[in-house]
Amino acid sequence: MASAQLNEGSWHLLMLLDQAPGLHALSDALSDLVEAGHPIVVGTADLKYSNGLVRFQETHPDRFVQFGISEQNMISAAAGMAAAGLQPYIATFASFMALLGCEQVRTDVAYTGLPVRLIGHHTGITLGFYGTSHHATEDLAIMRSLAGLDVVAPADGLALGAAIRAYADHPGPVYFRIGRGRDPDVYSAGYVHERGGSVTHGRGGDLTILATGSMVHPSLEARELLDAQGVSAGVVDLHTVKPIDVEAIRRAADESPLLMTVEEHNVIGGLGGAVAEVLATDGSGVPLHRHGIRDEYSLIGPPTHLYRHYRLDGPGIAAEAAARLAQEG
Amino acid sequence: MTTTTPAPSPAEVERINERARFIRLETVRLISIAKTGHFASTFSCAELMAALYYGVLRLRHGEPDWPDRDRFLLGKGHVAVGLYPLLADWGFLDKDVLDEYTRLGNPLGDHPDMRKVPGVDFSSGSLGHNLSVGLGMAMATRYTGRDYRVFVLLGDGELHEGQNWEAALAAAHHRVGNLIAIVDRNHYCLDGEVDDVNGIGPLADKWRSFGWEALTIDGHDSAVVLSTLRELRDRRDDAAPAVVIAETVKGKGVSFMESEVGWHLGYLDSVDESRVLAELRGA
């Protein structure tokens, strides 16, 4: 019987990875750190093809540790490595990092203040039809409530690389929240990550959209769609959910009569919650529309279909903004 | 295991017994300040901790952060009360700090905290984490070039936590020979006998099947404890990880605490405290 000829692109994990350039940025930034002499060790829990760290393993096999499907062990072991003077970077699906490993992150990493870097990838609903077990729409809320832990959600691969480099010498722990490495480019060469900062993409006379991570690009698309309808929308990339850029939020509240947060996350406790805390503490009268997953578990579906369904693509965000503006009158 | 380490002398053994008595007496003294504490769990591992701190671990007096020190992790963090006097004795913290054990703002709580207590190599309290932490510390020597061993003292009830077995798999897989676990096999957890609550036997076979070298010893025989742990300390690094299952008696040294379920955690009134001290001093 003749063996079937399969299209390698349909199953070969390394070839699939080529569709995720944002993950190349992860491995490349980590390789740069090794070459710059940082005492880093990179670990994963049987997901080196999913997070692209196989690319790092190929260049620096001596700095790569495969923990197998044992996320809790990986997190605590990384804390032990950090206590012994290393800078461990460990990666797994955001759902497993934040939910399965929550207590290990809290007690062994955040409380100890050790320089462990947690990389939660395929966050939000980007794993589409894998379902709720693989979705992470709670990780921002969990991670930002852990004292001592920075929470960073870069908008694209370039921003991820910049954030990793910017945090190279940070003495405490960091959670990097990233997607599946397929985010369209938002930034170009020369972009610099500023801890606790943000990036303002234009001012909005009618509203300012405050977005994080994977939602920055579609928010910029929405801005163009709104502009075509005569609506003036600014966009602020709040790439750091903790410590959040309070001044940028205040500026947006001063400039716009409406603020709208956009996140691939439950509208409770994440970016929307963080911005609401700032506005309420200030006694700001500016209304805030929190857009995201509305305290529910996502449907099954291909990622792009889910983004459309939950109005988390460009047209959806624009429609959401227009509807709220209409309500505001 | 090839034996290259000389057998401990009678004087060394007597020293460990004396230090174990010191741990028990200090435990009673400190818990009398807190009013409640884990007497029995501490008493079961007194010889183990005494042997480690006075005959096994490579430490430098007054230098809790010496990079090449052997690491000691207290998986069963609730016996920190027995560890603190040893850390003070090693000059890692001021002895006066002991006198305010658990009082408002004192660094010494029921569970050891590396951010607050010099000489605590890693915090604990939530059971099941520290074998993983020890694995990471032991693997770190491959990158840092440091030469140390990592000893992790686990409770037998603690082995109910699944994370231990994740760490056990990984330590054997990565051949982390500088990692040494010690199980304080005192047979009791809070709700009763460990093997009635959730059976963990056959314990040595379990560890062996995970790829560990496993030894079972009498955890109150200081000579055996000392020689076993020393031999493991002196092994070559590329061996399999090792576990010592130390058969112990919960509450060891105090007749009414020994193997009484209720004595996992307790309080002594002044009459009982006098009885306990008399028994310990006479021991």
Uncertain segments of chain A: none
Strand order of the largest sheet of chain A: 2-1-3-4-6-5-10
Rough shape of chain A?
globular
- State the distance separating the first and last CA atoms of chain B: 33 Å
The overall pLDDT average of chain B reads 94
Examine the secondary-structure arrangement and name the CATH architecture of the largest domain in chain A.
Answer: 3-Layer(aba) Sandwich
User: What structural class results from the helix and strand content of chain B?
Assistant: alpha/beta
Number of structurally distinct domains of chain B: 1
* Order of helical and strand elements of chain A: HHEHEHEHHEHEHEEEHEEHEHEHH
Span of the ends, CA to CA of chain A = 71 Å
How much of the sequence lies in strands of chain A comes to 15-25%
Overall shape of chain B: globular
Give the count of helical stretches of chain A: 13
* Largest Cβ-defined interface: A-B, 30 and 31 residues
Q: What assembly state would you assign to the polypeptide chains in this entry? A: heterodimer
From the 3D coordinates, which CATH architecture of chain B would you assign? 3-Layer(aba) Sandwich
For the record, what CATH class of chain B applies?
Answer: Alpha Beta
How would you portray this structure in words?
- The complex is a heterodimer of chains A (329) and B (283).
- Chain A is α/β, with parallel strands linked by helices.
- In chain A, strands 2-1-3-4-6-5-10 form a 7-stranded mixed beta sheet, sandwiched between helices. In chain A, strands 7-9-8-11-12 form a 5-stranded mixed beta sheet, with helices on both faces.
- Chain A is globular.
- In chain A, helix 4 (71-83) runs parallel beside helix 6.
- Helices cover 39% and strands 17% of the residues of chain A.
- Chain A folds into 2 domains: 13-177, Rossmann fold (3-Layer(aba) Sandwich); 199-328, Rossmann fold (3-Layer(aba) Sandwich).
- The longest helix of chain A is centred in the N-terminal third of the chain and has 15 residues, at 21-35.
- Chain A is built from 13 helices and 12 strands.
- Chain A has helices at 13-17, 21-35, 54-59, 71-83, 94-100, 102-110, 139-144, 157-166, 216-228, 246-255, 271-282, 303-309, 314-328; strands spanning 40-44, 64-66, 87-93, 117-121, 150-152, 174-177, 199-201, 207-211, 233-237, 240-242, 259-266, 288-293.
- Chain B is α/β, with parallel strands linked by helices and 283 residues long.
- Chain B has one domain (10-282): 3-Layer(aba) Sandwich (Rossmann fold), CATH 3.40.50.
- Chain B has 11 helices and 7 strands.
- Chain B has helices at residues 10-34, 39-44, 46-56, 80-89, 95-98, 130-144, 163-173, 194-197, 203-209, 222-233, 270-282, and strands at residues 71-74, 150-155, 179-185, 188-189, 192-193, 213-218, 242-247.
- In chain B, the strands form 2 sheets. Chain B has a 5-stranded parallel beta sheet, sandwiched between helices. In chain B, strands 4-5 form a two-stranded antiparallel ribbon.
- In chain B, strand 6, helix 10 and strand 7 form a beta-alpha-beta unit.
- The longest helix of chain B has 25 residues, at 10-34.
- The A-B interface holds A 39, 41, 63, 65, 67-68, 70, 72-86, 88, 103-104, 107-108, 111-113 and B 67, 114-115, 121-123, 125-126, 129-130, 132-141, 143-144, 146, 162-163, 166-167, 169-170, 173-174.
